[in-house]
Amino acid sequence: MKIKVVNSLILMLCLMAGIAQAAIATPDAVVKQTADGVIDRIKTQRSELDADPSKIYDVVNELVIPHFDFTSMSKWVLGKNWKAASDVQRNEFIEQFKTLLVRTYARALLEYSNQQIKYFPVEMNSNSKLAVVKTEMTSDGAQPFPVAYRMHQTNQAWKVVDVSVDGVSLVSTYRGSFSTQIKKNGFDSLINELTMKNERLASSLTK
């Protein structure tokens, strides 16, 4: 009797695990669902956002940020400087880097004016949990604007670890400038610079 109960429990756990695995959204589905949700929110809250642009931060934090892996992004963007940093410095950097991306992305979203998004088949590496979702922003009378999302699977979910805009990688771009800043003035100077930049971005958005 006990053996039957144990076997039943094992079978139930296996079925639950299979269901959970099947429920994982694909990389392109994550990108599309997020983009559609953000666009819908911008359209429905346009008057509120025009009156108070800082409300766009709530949209980004709620709908976009959960789909980014900022710890992995921070490790990659800092390279060897990540290993040399203390835990306190790492945590402060992650927070400021996250804030920088939130505020930069938020400003771009405020300029949205009914552009269409074209999605291409997801590119996946069968030997790793990596994928690239390529998209194009299109609008009347303008050249298509390519945006690609590099993603990896972690904790049963696909999350963004890099964004390339018109072929330029966000992580690669920041990696060069951050490395120069650290080499020149130290890790803390980079954190201070990011903090001041984030304050300026926040201030400019509320004016």
Structure description:
The protein has a single domain (25-206), classed as Nuclear Transport Factor 2, Chain: A (Roll). Helix content is 61%, strand content 18%. The chain has 9 helices and 6 strands, in the order αααααααββββββαα. Strands 1, 2, 3, 4, 5 and 6 form a 6-stranded antiparallel beta sheet that branches. Helix 2 (27-44) packs antiparallel against helix 4 (56-63), helix 4 (56-63) packs across helix 7 (87-110) and helix 8 crosses helix 9. The longest helix is centred in the middle third of the chain and has 24 residues, at 87-110.
Write a brief structural summary.
It contains nine helices and six strands, in the order αααααααββββββαα.
